[in-house]
């Protein structure tokens, strides 16, 4: 199965990124670019065909491409990001996606960030309570109704996005910080709790049995290896200062 990963470069204005839960601290934009390049190279090594979109210097957060679209095998949905400063990021990404999917645009005013959307098989979990609004959940459901998906709203508190709190490790196993999300939301799926000393460790990017995650979370990495998966620790310190993680820097989907 060939995977495509779309990434977007780090903006020259990255230091002016949106911040919700973190204090602003100095960001080294050149280092952020180096870290982003290493992340992109790792995606290639793990078998993705990478399409790199250029940054827009007028869009500080454009590297966090995940928030601009949801990509399913059958369709892509362009979002209305929760932060007004990020809404112009959507069109260029939708344009690139149009080479691979029929792209529909969210019509309503309700906001939705891709970071709030976790897809596991035919289950679509959407975090509500931060950047994404409940009405958007209904709209995603209506776009997907032809294809048998179940769409589940998931209340989140304390985290920027659902995928700050929880991400898929396998179809039967979710990595989570359960102080930000109630694991009951995921039904029968098993939960691997992040290490208590690493509350931000819930955001990992799994490709097959390979797990990309920040090197700042070694204890959680140990737990993940214990579960039988291979970890790849990347230095994303500058992206973390902007409240980004490893899922948010790519849109990964099946080549069809
Ligand atoms: C923001 O606040 O929108 C950006 N500074 C960080 C977005 C990170 N996105 C993600 O985790 N999906």
Which key terms come to mind for this protein?
256 residues, alpha/beta, 3-stranded mixed β-sheet, 6 helices, 26% strand, globular, binds citrulline
Structure, explained:
This protein has helices spanning 29-45, 90-97, 134-144, 162-165, 218-226, 237-240, and strands at 3-8, 48-53, 69-71, 76-78, 103-105, 117-120, 123-128, 150-155, 166-170, 173-176, 190-193, 205-207, 210-214, 230-234, 251-254. It has 256 residues and is an alpha/beta fold. Strand 3 (69-71) and strand 4 form a beta hairpin. The longest helix is centred in the N-terminal third of the chain and has 17 residues, at 29-45. The radius of gyration is 17 Å and the shape is globular. The model has no long low-confidence stretch (mean pLDDT 97).
């Amino acid at each position: 199965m060939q995977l495509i990963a779309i990434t977007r470069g780090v903006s020259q204005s990255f230091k002016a990124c949106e911040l919700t839960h973190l204090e602003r601290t100095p960001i080294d934009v050149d280092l952020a670019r180096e870290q982003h390049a290493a992340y992109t190279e790792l995606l290639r090594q793990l078998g993705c065909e990478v399409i790199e979109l250029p940054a827009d210097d007028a869009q500080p957060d454009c590297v966090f491409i995940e928030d601009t679209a949801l990509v399913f095998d059958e369709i892509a949905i362009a979002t209305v990001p929760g932060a007004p400063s990020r809404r112009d990021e959507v069109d260029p990404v939708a344009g690139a996606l149009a080479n691979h999917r029929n792209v529909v645009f969210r019509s309503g005013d309700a906001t939705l960030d891709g970071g709030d959307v976790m897809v596991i098989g035919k289950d679509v979990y959407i975090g509500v309570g931060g950047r994404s609004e409940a009405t958007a959940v209904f709209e995603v459901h209506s776009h997907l109704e032809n294809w048998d998906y179940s769409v589940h709203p998931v209340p989140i508190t304390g985290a920027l996005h659902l995928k700050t709190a929880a991400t898929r490790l396998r179809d039967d196993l979710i990595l989570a910080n359960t102080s930000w999300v109630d694991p009951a939301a995921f039904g029968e799926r098993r939960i691997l709790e992040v290490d208590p000393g690493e509350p931000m460790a819930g955001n990992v990017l799994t490709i097959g049995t390979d797990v990309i995650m920040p090197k700042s979370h070694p204890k959680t990495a140990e737990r993940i290896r214990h579960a039988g998966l291979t970890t790849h620790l990347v230095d994303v310190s500058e992206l973390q200062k902007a409240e980004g993680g490893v899922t948010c820097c790519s849109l990964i989907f099946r080549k069809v």
